[in-house]
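Schema walk-through. Below, the input block comes first and the output block second. Nothing else is stored per chain. Lengths vary across the set, and this one has 214 residues.
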Amino acid sequence: MDNSRISALILDMGRPRLHADDTVLDATRDLVLAGGGGATTAALSTRSAVPVGSLYHRFGSRDALLAELWLRTVKRFQAGLFAAATAAPPGLDRAVAAAAWTVDFATDQPADARLLLLTRREELVRDASLPATVRAALEDLNEPVIRMLRQLAAEIFGHADRGTVEVVVIAVVDLPYAHVRRHLLAGGDAGRHRPALLRVVRHTLEEARADEVP
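--- output ---
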């Protein structure tokens, strides 16, 4: 390798990131949603206007890039989830606010929501080539949500055990997730029946709490 190519390589590796990660991750998301097989490194380079070498230098591999995209998307969802839950009064109102955020996220950020529906964390974690830091982030990502669900169970039922946490998961996670999934994958409006869904969530928790009373 001649001196000019060596110098160019050193400069490329040492310069600050000229391309915002979000630009690359947005391009990756759009290609995945258009059809996962089309999200090749070459296609990502073309879509984001970032050289292939820069992509590999920043992310290491296509699979690591996909994992970074999924992490960013989940963190965006969780940031809104925790903000909505924190702003609501404890107990039923907080649980309903948490359930509502799933619908609001799908309405406000449909591309990110569709990505979460189409990608499973377990598939990403199985990739042996992932950097240890990325793997650890994937494995630990749901811990704050689990703590929030246990807190909601304690606020609503007075205690958090397997049974009460399961009821909270059904109402706050499963119901809105199923609603959003059906509408998003069909190209519909996930927010259209938001009030009806939230009434079901509240009723489910109220009935379960009434059953707890001796």
